[in-house]
User: Fold this.
Amino acid sequence: MSQVQGTTTEKFAGLVDHLEKTLANDEDVGASIAVYHHEELVADLWGGYRDEAKTTPWDRDTLVNVWSTTKTMTFLVALMLYDRGELDFNLPVATYWPEFAANGKADIEVRHLMNHCAGLSGWHESISPEDLADWELAISLLAAQAPWWEDRSMTGYHALTQGFLLGEVVRRITGTTIGQFFKSEVADVLGVDFYIGLPESEEHRVSLVIPPPPESFGDSAPDSIMVRTLTSPLLDATAPRNRWWRAAEIPAANGHGNAFSVATIQQVMANNGHANGHRFFSEKTGDTVFQRQVGGVDQVLGVDMSFGLGYGLSSSYVPVGPRSCFWGGYGGSLIMMDQELGLTISYMMNKMQVGLTGDTRGGEISLLAAVAAMS
Assistant:
């Protein structure tokens, strides 16, 4: 009996077979795939189970923690404010958040927050995972601390801090939290379910992520940027099992959605500013995303990365098209947009594999979808 439900056009039907295979061989336990091609929903698939014991089927409206894929929602919000003239990526962060200027940070610009160059990839003060639910504590500590490096052309993946940094800039501009702004200005406009801060009313739909095998820091020195970033705080993949995590706004890591909602939102990038009849920013603003800002071997990820405004661009590690942008989440989730192909590809799942920014499953799906789009 088929584990996969949903629909595809004939051209994209190979995605059904692919998901059937990964569910059957236990690469996936529960997962969803969604693809838009030239604004048409050409694949909307889901299958498997919400739980590791395989007792509860994954439904079309199942929600899962997508980890760093959440970051793409914060990038979209920032682009919208830029397009409205309320945010300038080239101005100092302290223009909007005066306290941020402390301890040698007066010249750090908003674009440095977008591109992981600000030198604030972790908290200098010791905090617990539960402290991430305390917004004022998290942002006040970041505002007070000195950057961990000075060269603004060097990236160090701001795995958790980026959402707080961008989120506080958004709060200073709009007077509301980034989760609330995103809900009212994006998710509600498009009529899709993606939450940065999950309401208790949606708890019954949640599939808890299945943690990956343990990771180690290898031979990295304890005082390296990578180790300092990933241990401040030391967070493991069981955090989303807690209501405090799901309820909080942790805009770099705790978004809850599924492939359909993520693809419906992020097709804005593939369509250069619009989706489902709604324009979120101008084509001129969209073009800025594909202008390479920084690149090189990231100090935290340890691989060659290239960044536009927030989104990842083509690099030796992730070779994609010149008008493609993407990001992925801890354990495997992936969202990819290609303007030349008019293509948006989304993969969200509950079984995590090793890897801060995804694994091969999302890449395989993206390749299948891209080949189908070009056929």
Observations:
- The radius of gyration is 19 Å.
- The mean pLDDT is 96.
